[in-house]
Please model this.
Amino acid sequence: MLSTDSYAALLAQSRNAGADFAEVYVERWRRRQLRTIDGRVEEATSGIQLGAGIRLFFGEDVVYGYTNDLSDAALSELVASLASVRGAGDDVGRPDAAGRGGIDLRKLDAGPDVHAPTVPFEAHDKRWRLERLRELDAGARIAPEIKQVEGRLLEWEQDVWIANSEGAYVEDRRVRTRLIGFAIASDGSETQTGHAGPGLSMGLELLEKYDPAAVGRKAAELAMTNLRAKPAPAGTMPVVLGNGFGGVIFHEALGHLLETTGVARNASALSGMVGQQIASPVVTYVDDGTTPNGWGSSRFDDEAAPTERTVLINKGVLESYMVDRWGALKTGYRPTGSGRRQDYTFAPTSRMRNTFVTAGDTPKEKLFEGIEFGLYAKTLGGGQVRPGSGEYNFAVNEGYIIRDGEIAEPVRGAMLLGKGPDSIKKIVAVSDDLSNEPGMCGSLSGSLPVEVGQPHLLVSDIVVGGEA
Model:
């Protein structure tokens, strides 16, 4: 996007102004959305966003600014404005008399792009997209009680260019597609909803991998299940958490505690605990930015570091945090390619990518054996978490009573309440059916695509809030 000379000049200007480290981040976004209600087009939007952010480190002090004017003059003015808070420096970054030195912007290569789309967005027109959403609508019409169906097709293309004063220069293209179905069911006295929303780092081949009619049917089946469900009981009981989006409870109540955003400030209940047993020995917890086509995957993070598979907890022992550049500077832990941002208007910080509990060796059916009375939380929804402590409450979108080791009647209105660092110690068995689901995570550097996941797992006891 910018020329090599432009990057070099900006970085040299930053270092000459006294910055210990400088970074230029340039980004171009293109977003499209097609939304239907009952098969009719409700919204069709597209937009392009272009801009740059510049970050300067003065020791542990960091300043950041951004602009949508990519001219050399505007970017130089931005550097000058940021540097003015620190004063002038020396000639670091300039070539010596022999022409050596300066800022060497050699392009880094992370190998082939395993997330590249095979069916680009240009391969099909708007009519084709509308037909797919109408297939979703038709698939959801499984009963007269289904009163409304909404379909959404989201398409994102993000190109980033990052250069820094250590000589790194990277380019990355991130293409993501998501298909979402919502269904509303009503019997005249009760109304319930259902949702399904697969998404991956790929192009329109997502709609070959996930049949739109099946996505609509899944949303409708959830709405119908909740329509006939009885109010959930309350109390402390064993809980089997479903795979896939069941992992959101540990994403929110545990994963955020392992980001150096909080760890470096001693604002996390898990600060300073590397090497200690913090979870059940059956738990291994991973954050993987390299998952092929993962919703939260990329070849590089937003600080020009190659992404990696980071084992956070290994058999219950805390092995690593998720560490960005600032977090590494503050804590001394090695960076893990976890620096992420929503867009150029945000400075990056340590964030999750694709985070999950790894598969165990217990068959799913065995998890239910011996439970006289408990809850099967098959699908979780939204919730709240207290930052730092990991105290949480999460809604159960699809739940069933466990009675005498068997899955019994569906229930609705259940809430799970607890504390992440405590609940992860109470996991007594992990199944072998790992599955990940996409979502959006909001934190200090904005809203980001992430995957959450786990196999089915059994927690010995969780407080369940219910209506009965």
Q: What stands out?
A: The two ends are 60 Å apart (CA to CA). The chain has two domains: 1-228, 235-465. Confidence is low (pLDDT under 50) at residues 87-107. Residues 235-465 form one domain.
